[in-house]
């Protein structure tokens, strides 16, 4: 058996706001959209996908580095962007709640933490020069 795609499915009470935020502001290209009686789904491309599995101790360490305290639930979505500081500002202007501003991590990236539509905790990260 082999997996050919990872798809994270998010149920958003304010569907239009979530689509606008992730598609139009964050820039995830729309792959497809479908309607059902009384409902909608939009599938957005998010580049290369990985599934990062961590234990509670390491998750707490990541939160400590990025935020200064344990704040994430059991799911957090991380997006690599070219400039995490600039992207953080754009997403905050679009309605995301800033949890922690961009900060350099021990793994040599600049990471920020936000809460986006549908209550998703987001990390934006960009590689720092060696």
From TrEMBL:
This is VOC domain-containing protein. InterPro entries: Glyas_Bleomycin-R_OHBP_Dase (IPR029068), Glyas_Fos-R_dOase_dom (IPR004360), VOC_core (IPR037523). It comes from the Bacteria. It comes from Actinocorallia longicatena. Residues 4-127 form the VOC domain. Pfam families: Glyoxalase.
